[in-house]
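Hi there,

I know you've been waiting on this one. I reran it after we fixed the sequence typo, so this is the corrected version. Both the input and the resulting structure follow.
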Amino acid sequence: MENVMATVKRELLVRHLEAWAPAALHRGRRVFYAHGFADADGGESAEAAARVLVEQTDFVRGRELSMLVVGEQAEPVRERLAAVIGDAALAVHAVSGGTDARLAVALKAAGAQRVPLLGFLDASAGEPPAVTTVAALTAGKPAEVLLVLPPGTALEPYRAGWPLFSSVELATGDEPGELLAYGTTSGKSLEGFKEALWAVDEFAGVRYRDPGDPDRHLIDISLTPHPGPLKRELLAHLGRVGSATVTDLRTFALTDTVYRAADATRVLHTLVDAGAVTRQPPAGRLGGDVVIGLP
């Protein structure tokens, strides 16, 4: 099961990088990808990331695309990446000595401030990273982080510095699973992450769980995910706030659940048709300014 879990995380990383890299290169002259805990899996996820970045090197004329690899023993990982990169225009910087000890310093030394920056930190095999390590990635502009944490880790401290922060539990059963968190300074990037999340190929035994779902319902990975947990979370949210516009509820789904804004729209149509919620005005298109409330 560990190999299957690793495959799911690696595919999600690849899918997100495939969307992130072209947009980042279009936006900035210098672009950085930082891969922490790179030696924890022998460099497999770092190699997968490097393959995606190498595919982008045809578009880097006049731009700098760099990959920072940090881990206890980063040099063997760099040697593994060398065979993948060849003569492609991807600069790799390897820093040994531990991600918590070295990442922030390495980012500063590489000049990865105020440039497009994406960090990937899979700490699921050991202790959770220091909050300051994750916060160091907010130096990018825009900045993003994909963070994998051991089961049961408190997520709230890692939200610091990230205007948008979402999470999902990678579950194989009733017991708590690894936590995958995503932080970003861009709403558009969060939408892209959610699209990648549900586009991952379904692997036997691995499902998602929304950390905010009190019923801890397991959700199959699908382009059209089961709406049950989202229905419960939208109704609970309306119970707290009283009423909200469709736009507000779409934003809530995007930022506070594992679902996408479009999933919220579909669920709201179902809830309105079933009479589980009210709407004002009572007729017409379910546009963003329509106010939804409880009966």
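Quick highlight: The first strand starts at residue 30 and ends at 36.

Best,
R. S.
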